[in-house]
Amino acid sequence: MHIRPLKNFDRVLETAPDKSITHRAVMFNAFARGEATVTNALLGGDCKSTIACMRALGAEITVDGSTVKVKGATVFKDATLDAGNSGTTTRLLTGLLAGKNVTATLDGDDSLRTRPMKRVTEPLSAMGAIVTTTDGKVPLTVRPAVLHGIDYVMPMASAQVKSAVILAGINADGVTRVTEPALSRNHTELMLKAMGADIAQDGLTVTVRRSEPKAVDVRVPGDISSAAFLLGAAVVTGGSVTVINVGLNPTRTGIVEVLRAMGAKITIDNYSDEVEPIGDLTVKSAPLRPFKITKEIVPSLIDELPLLAAIACYANGTSVISGAEELKVKESDRIATTVEALTALGADVEPTEDGMIIHGHGGLKGGGTTNARGDHRIAMTSAVAALGSELGCDIDGAETASISYPGFWEVIC
Ligand code: S3P
Question: Which of 9, 54, 77, 297 could form a cystine bridge with 239, CB 3.0-4.6 A?
Answer without folding.
Answer: 9
